[in-house]
Amino acid sequence: MNIIGIVCEYNPFHNGHAYHLMTSRQALGGDGAVVCVMSGDFMQRGEAAVYSKFARAEAACRCGANLVVELPLPWSLSSAESFARGSVGLLSALGATHVSFGSETGEIEPLKKLSQLLMKPEFNESVKAVLNEDGSLPYAAARQIAAEKELGELARQLELPNNILAVEYLKAIYELELPLIPMTVQRFGSGHDKEWDGRGPKSATELRNLLKAGKSMGGFIPDEAEKVYKREREQGRELTDRSLLEIAMLSRLRMFDEEYFENIPDGGDGAGRRLYKAVREEGGLDGVISAAKTKRYALSRIRRMCLNACLGVKKGMNEGIPPYARVLAADAAGCEIIKAADKKGSLPIITKPASVKAMSSECQAVFDIGAAAHDFYVLGRKATGERRSGEDYRQSPVIIK
Length: 401
Fold this sequence. Notes:
The longest helix is centred in the last third of the chain and has 17 residues, at 361-377. This protein is of the alpha/beta class and 401 residues long. The chain contains 18 helices and eight strands.
């Protein structure tokens, strides 16, 4: 059986995601199960999810996915390279035969060509040469300049956010020598952080903005997903007011010394020192991020640094691939995939959270930091009764009958 692997955040799951699942299956003749590796409560761009990982996984399984496992916190809050490596590594361990990702280009061959260029040792030297010429450039901009010197117009594809991640997935597949067949579906509708023009799906960013404004997402998300989100909303578990977490975050950040900031992911090159200073001088999180950001330090990097510092993620935690696969939701076909992967034994699979206590110290450390992050996440819920700690150890996977 074909098993299609998808890397996702689903913040929230919308019609564009449903189209991706459907089109991926159709490309393989309508056959195949879908396994998703999904970020937990905090996103790669450095912000908290609107709905918890448990609710988002349930919504995905009610809308076409067969199995959703969590990408643990250190990989969720890392650069595109580590994010991609951890994700495709998990998919391969779960028995995926294909990896399907969205892209602006919609064609796999140009993306392969770009990934192969970026993997060449001599290309890294070209990027270093660009950085030596202009030390204020962020790495991504220097890489873009070096790529255009090699591939001309084709390199412009690296300026587009979904293409960037697509290239990182391909790099990870090649570098880890994984038996995964890559495939891509062209993204349509609203572009990343762009305004909807009336055609196709609205982006997740626009849908989150609707929620923050107290408006409905009706018509832009599948009905089954809306049922899950409505339940979360009614029970006071929807996070649309970031200020509820902001003071808690600033309070934690002010506890740490300069050396601590230098030892979080992306804290080198002076970025950690700059963030440390901003935390002490600014009165709000937006002010901290604005003060720490420079031409060299991108906004998403600073946001991730804030969360990594707040949640205790240290350099080196996101190396390799995650040490386990934690199941968040599954249907009958997904349960069969779990059984097959568990029998293969390439990676421990967590279906009962308490079982992690019998696993390796590495598994326990990664799970514990994610559980502590979830305890922090729930402080953003409107309903005080939904802010109890320990939910990560109490919550079993949602099984869709």
